[in-house]
Amino acid sequence: MVEGALEKMSAQPGGPASYSLRLRMTTSSAPDQHALDLNDLLGHFLDIEYLGSISCSYCGRVSKKSYAQGYCFPCFRKLARCDLCVMSPDRCHYAAGTCREPEWGESFCMQPHLVYLANSSGPKVGITRDGQQVGRWLDQGASQGLVILSAPSRHLAGLAEVALARHISDRTDWRALLRQDAPPIDLLALRQRLQGLVLDLSPSVTWLDGVEPEALSYPVLSYPQALKRFRLERERRVSGRLLGIKGQFLLFENGVLNVRQHTSFHVRVRWGEAPSEPDTDDQMELFPG
Ligand SMILES: [Zn+2]
User: Fold this and answer.
1) How far apart are CA 147 and CA 211, in angstroms?
2) Which end of the chain is least crowded, N or C, by CB within 10 Å?
3) What's the gap in Å between 79 CA and the centre of ligand 1?
4) pTM, whole model, 2 decimals?
5) Domain extents for the chain?
6) Mind listing the pLDDT tens digit for each residue in 216-246?
C-alpha cells in the first residue's frame, strides 16, 4: 500500500510501452516520489481510494478542488501554464507583452515545436516540443505517429495546427480509443494529401521530408466490456482487475480511469491478488449434512 498525490503516469516506449503510476509524497519524512510499475500488475487487482483532498502540483497547497488538472485556485489564476493559451497555442499573447510569466513563456513556448499526425482513435493533428513527440503520443494512446512540420515557436506551431485542423481532427474520441486497437492508417499518404491542401503556412514553418512514421503499442490484455469513465470525486474508490493501460487511462473490467484528469488527488493505492471470495466448499464442510 502507498499513499500520495497522483501524478500523470510516466510511459516508456517498448513492445509494449511500460508504465509507472507516480505518487507525490505529501509528508516530509517520505521520499519525494513513489513509482509503481504497472505492467507487473496487469491481470492483478488494483485499488485506488480517494482521500478527499488535492495538493497543488505547483505550491503544494491542500484544497478540495482541482483547477487545470492539479492546481489550486490561486496558482490557476497566476501561472502562465494555466492560461487558456496553453490549451489553444494559436492564442499565444507573448508578443503582445501580456504573458503572465514571460520567463516561463520563453523556456516553454518560445522554443522549437513540431506538428505531428497521429493515429489515436483515428487520424489527428497535434503539436509538441521538439524531442517530446514519442512521450506525447504515448500520453494520447496513439498507435502511430509522424512528425510533419517544424516551427520556431509554440505559437507558430499552433497556427499551423489550426490550418491543418480544417481538414483533419485535432481531438481523440476516448471511447473509440478504449474499445479496440486503432485500425492502421497510411500517415505518409495523409501527410502528402495535407501538404497539397494547406498552402498558407508561415514561411518560418517548414515541411519535414524523409521522416518515417513510428509505431507504438500498449500493455492491454483485453478492452473493458463497459466504458464507464470513473471520477474519483464521485466514485471515491476504483478497484478491480487491471486489464490494461493506454494513454493516460487505466482499464478495469467495469470502466476506465483517466489518471491525468486526477493529477494531485490524494489517494491510497493497494495492489496484489483480489480479495478472495468466501469459499463455499469449505463452508459446507464446516456445516456437514
Ligand atoms: Zn498552488
Assistant:
1) 7
2) C
3) 9
4) 0.90
5) 2-75+220-272, 111-215
6) 999 999 999 889 999 999 999 999 999 999 9
